[in-house]
Design goal:
Mean pLDDT: 94
Oligomer: single chain
Strand order of the largest sheet: 2-3-1-4
Number of strands: 4
Structural class: alpha+beta
Largest sheet: 4 strands, antiparallel
Shape: globular
Length: 148
């Protein structure tokens, strides 16, 4: 084939350190916009970004030249620095790990809607319940001792 064609979509989820509810509604949308800029600067496409006080969801389209782990590391480092500098929340940190799940193009609309409805969704389900459901649905083995 003379050219390459890719559709690499990832649903990425990570939480604040110890799941502290430190992402305030007053500046949450600014954080999400900043994170979108980080993804764009890395060559990716921020399709959807949302979350609540203790975690964030991102639907990202990435080119083959972007390693997912590098994108997440840059997202966390730059957004933490942004919170420290712009919001003046010196204790803000992200949890060390993350979850990333591939998304087929036919399911992107579902994930976009899911991310957009995080506040409503979490009225009945905790982050831990949500994350465990993702792992189980995707058939990812885990040891719960090392999840939280």
């Amino acid at each position: 084939m003379p050219s390459t064609h890719l559709s690499l979509n990832f649903h990425v989820v990570f939480s604040t350190k110890d799941r502290e509810p430190s992402i305030a509604p007053e500046w949450r949308s600014r954080l999400h916009a900043y994170m979108g800029g980080v993804v764009t600067n890395l060559g990716g496409t921020p399709v959807a970004i949302g979350g609540i006080a203790d975690h964030v969801h991102l639907l990202l389209g990435l080119p083959a030249t972007c390693a997912l782990s590098d994108v997440v590391r840059s997202l966390k480092a730059n957004s933490s620095r942004w919170v420290h500098d712009e919001i003046r929340l010196a204790r803000f940190m992200w949890q060390e790990g993350y979850g990333a799940f591939t998304v087929s193009p036919s399911q992107c609309r579902t994930i976009i809607e899911y991310i957009a409805n995080q506040e409503e969704h979490h009225r009945t389900r905790s982050f831990q319940e949500e994350y465990l459901a993702f792992l189980k649905k995707c058939g990812i083995s885990f040891d719960e001792r090392f999840l939280w």
